[in-house]
Amino acid sequence: MVSTKFSPPRIGTKHVLRGNLLAQLERMHHCRLALITGAAGYGKTTLLAQWRQSRLRAGGEVVWVSLTAEDNSYSAFCATLLEALRRLGIEVGIDLLRDDNAASAMDATVAAIVDAAAMHAKELYLILDDYHHVEVPLAHKLIQKLLDQGPGNLHLVLASRVTPPLSLSRLRVMDQVAEIESVELPFDLTETRAFIEENLGSNRINADELSLIHDLTSGWPSCLQLIVIMLKNRADSRAILQDLLWRSSDLQTYLSEEVVAHLPTEMVAFTEALSIFRRFSAAMAKAVTGHADAGELIKRMEDENLLIYRVDSDDRQAWYRFHPLFGEFLSTRLERRGSDQVRELHRRGAHWLAEHNCLTEAVRHASLGDDVEFATQVIERSAPATWTLDYLAPTLRLLERLPEDVLFRHPRLLFLACVTVSLTSRPARAKSWLARLEASDMQGYPELASGLSLVRAAIAVQDDDSNRAVQLLEPVRDAPMENPFLRYMLLATLTVAYYIAGRYADARRLFDIHPIPPEDRGNDMAMVAESAQVTAHMLAGDVREAERLGSELLERSTREHGHRSICANLCASLLSDAFYELNRIDDARELIANRFGLLHSSVPDVILRTNMVRARLDLLQKGPDAALGFLQQQIAHLRCLGQLRPVAHLLAEQIRVLLIKGNRIRATELLASLEELAQAHATEQGARAELPALAALARARLLRSENSERALEALKVVSDYALRFNRGRFAVLADLLRADILYDLKRSDESVAVLTGMLEAAQGFGLVRTLLDEGPLTEKLLHRLAEEHPQEGPIGEYVDELLGKLTDPCSANAAMPRPRRAATPEQQPVLTPRELEILSLVAQAMSSKRIAHTLDITLETVKWNLRNIFVKLGVSSRYDAMVWARNHKLID
User: Fold this and answer.
1) 204 and 175 both lie in a single domain
2) Which helix H or strand E contains 668, and what residues bound it?
3) Which of 161, 730, 796, 857 might form a disulfide with 132, Cβ 3.0–4.6 angstroms?
């Protein structure tokens, strides 16, 4: 036989070690079978090659077999198998190749193999790669007998694109099977980053590009390889990465030859017709394509791992989606049939979806099918109780196609349009449409009349008029509202208005009076209301609590509504701020990467928060010039939107960065612009009341080395604002700057008193970057305090921790933690109930996949929680986390 058939593939120097999957395969030392199934290009062979090396290092005997289409006959397969066994040290002299006596020869041969293997003292591993080429039933029967009768030291390892027809129930019950399925094979974001950096070098792509690449490929290793080649060969690839990838001839050829070529014509036509839908079920596929056997075709697609995935759903019926690149490939092929056929498929899908109450998707496909009238009817006929945030995107798309005179003839659609634009940075249009709605005949729409004040309040929040929002909503706060969407929109809007005004107690009391019942915990607008409540903790300065609540909320919103849902995006913005403050720099960058809507189109608070985090990450990781460039670009954009408060914050941040660079002239010029904004809103009582405080803070930065007394006066304005509106981080920052000025004025006792009070507040809140971002100033003050007035207990440990992390604020090393004192019992990390639940299952040696099945959550949710556990505990492996939890008696 050709010797290369038994040659394992070489592992290049630039590969990603699949640590989690290799850990699952380590169970093979007591399992008879390892089964890896997945679509083409998902790294099955590379994974096994990595695992083979670990088995050799452990002293096992390993033989590799690369099966091909030539092994499809029984005799060819048997010849290959016997040669592989001979190389493993198992000599079998019975002629298994005679098909006329196959049954008796098979039994005798299996007995001989079992006896020979049992004589070996070592563990024996037989790897059969590309097992999907084996189609002869007798061959599968032979493997089944080896699995059923084989000794404990003989391990079979099968890698296949399809699930082989083997009976594995008994082996599963006996825990004799290690399985890795298609859903586990894609790279996660960390592995995607490692692969790209290994092949392109560190810091060659930014976080937004990395997130885009990961979203496009969904962790598909072969596709990532294509992207690496494109980025190496074309300098302009980044700007057109998405279009370039979809047009890649290499990708098209790969999908044509490796995925589609072996499919029957009927299957190809079926998949093409479904490619325009983000998800589909068997019943929907039958209605859209006309295939009576749609269910059987989908099952075959799933069995053959045809780049198809199950979608989490509350429905009893199973829903599926294609890999996004495969779906795009298929939809491109579908376009060859002509636009009329594509529109007809959209329209069929819209009607089926509408009949089955999938209203958001129905509106989307009706719009794409140019059936604007039906899209309008769907919204008009839909009960407001069915509305969700998912309506916003298809509604905006419909509004772009719908003449205003048609819009004005449909009150329910007009109301939803007002809600939509009031939540997406378009208050002017919302005001115009609301005026038309109020002037229209609202008879027959009593459920909408109660929502008019809510739309006015949402517009007020967009205009930063929080007092107006409170005035509108407090009178109707306790009025019954049957529509859950509007009820939770009211809760969210009023909470935002309260926390902007610093009325945190009122915001908390809202949720005491109107708690979210358990059955509504998955409602997306209810999650927006919860995120507003968590934001109140963040503004007050309680970062630890905001991180704890925000992590759980993001995990839940992602699980219920998807990674890119509106509620998940809002939670990501909030949590990125908390992560940045806690010095979890990479986590903060990852959360807001490739979420450009948060930077450009949302409520002012979200726009402000996300832009500030992004600018500070750029300063840390790319330097002041990159941060200034981003700030200048965003200020121009936000001025066009009329978002004055975010503009003021970004101007203040520009001034800070310019002072870091030593450019006082330009900083002074920008201060004049900021003070002009502040003077125009000097008497504001709502959200824009912070503009004078922002200008005062920037003025204090400029004056502290030139006119200390005036700088102290400016900081008094900042402190008064922080006290009045309960802004914890503002207060800490003002005290830090004041302590520095007092020390320079030789008022050391006052300086120490202010500094220690500030540290006590900051340590209680869990603040890190608020202090680290002041760089040399903080370092100078803390060193002097440690030398002249050493602190004991938690404050002393906090000072040590900050000094250990301090470095120049423009250095990436600012994010790298240094050794610190051991934590006191009060400072031990706190794990959430979900994290403890997952850790207890880790202690039972469960894989991430089994944990997901056991807890009825997604695999991504398990990975997310494990990552948070590792960060909280300061460990890097499941084993270390388990040991820590056991040592602290949190799990058995």
Assistant:
1) no
2) helix 664-680
3) 161
